[in-house]
Amino acid sequence: VVNDEELKKRIAEELALDRARRETEAQKRRLRQEQTYVRDEFGKLLERERIASNEHLTRAILRERAATEEERQKAQRFAKQLEEKDRELKKHDAYYKEQLARLEERSAQFYKVTTEQYQKAADEVAARFNKPPNSISFLLICFLQCYQQHAQETLSCSALASQYLHCVNHAKQ
């Protein structure tokens, strides 16, 4: 004999267990859904972070490339400026070598004229006084020695040449 009360109690317990099972299963489903949602959201967050990180890295690489390109262009500009300065220096060097050659030629001509003038003046003085002019001879000898010692630097003897001409002019008077 089954007691109605016991039966009601059992049915109520079974219903409560069934309800608890369904609630547990519903909670498990909700928990799985929440886990799936959290996993999806976390995956989306990670993807956004990865994209942001890649964008940051890409921007950094682009900045570095731009800086490298700018440095390369600056180096090219400096190289061109250096080449231009080198060409300019070579041009100046050629100009000064040409000027030096002209000065040496003029100095040689001056030496020739001076020697001729000396000889002429010495002959005149010797004829006039019947003896060689000592101071003029001494200056000419000094001048000739200087010119021989400084054949590549003929302008070094210009002071002696000036004294010699002054002496010759004085002797002519």
By DSSP (H or I, 4+ residues per run), the number of helices equals 3
Major β-sheet annotation: none
Q: Domain count, please report it.
A: 2
Radius of gyration, rounded? 56 Å
Mean pLDDT: 86
The backbone outline, from C-alpha atoms, is rod-shaped
Q: Give the tally of β-strands.
A: 0
Helix content: over 70%
Strand/helix succession: HHH
Instruction: Report the span from N to C terminus.
Output: 176 Å
User: Would you tell me the structural class of the helices and strands?
Assistant: mainly alpha
- Low-confidence segments, given as residue ranges, are none
How much of the sequence lies in strands comes to under 5%
Task: For this entry, give a set of tags.
3 helices; mainly alpha; 173 residues
